[in-house]
Amino acid sequence: MSLRLPAQIKQAMLVHAENCYPEEACGLVAGDRRGLRMAYPLTNVLASPTNYTIDPVEHFRALKHAERQGWELVGVFHSHPHSQAYPSPTDVRLAPDPEWVYFLIGLADRDRPQLRAFRIHDGTITEIDIEEETR
Ligand SMILES: [Zn+2]
């Protein structure tokens, strides 16, 4: 399985991760049949370096915005300020939707942020290959 990732969406996720450092950044990703369309940088109401909860009001607004564009929410992203871009046991336990793409940004080396994508289904983590688009 592979996923085409537009450069601007990757950039939006990395910028948000850096801006929220040393706390975890989080947000949602919208797409349609043509692919990924938008990353919404949202507020982590826990303001924590080790956990995140997306602000529910912002989550709702992102959903409404996506629907108005004819998109749907297809994934979530969050950062690990001090560790690798790999789902933690908590991430796996709380993963709500097997259809969603889980983007992880790892800032263990802040100068070289890692971005990886996964599906999480019934406690099983499957990595998705990312094909970066240049536009
Ligand atoms: Zn995590």
Defining key terms:
binds zinc ion; globular; seven-stranded mixed β-sheet; single chain; 135 residues; alpha/beta
Mean pLDDT: 95
Arrangement of strands in the largest sheet: 1-7-6-5-4-2-3
**Cα separation of the termini:** 22 Å
DSSP helical segment count: 3
Ligand inventory reads: zinc ion
Concise description?
By secondary structure, this protein is of the alpha/beta class.
Task: Describe the model.
By secondary structure, the chain is an alpha/beta fold. 25% of the residues lie in helices and 38% in strands. The protein is built from three helices and seven strands. Strands 1-7-6-5-4-2-3 form a seven-stranded mixed beta sheet. Strand 2 (26-32) and strand 3 form a beta hairpin. The longest helix has 14 residues, at 7-20. The chain is globular, with a radius of gyration of 14 Å. It binds zinc ion. The site of zinc ion has 4 residues, from strand 4. Residues 78, 80, 88, 91 line the site of zinc ion.
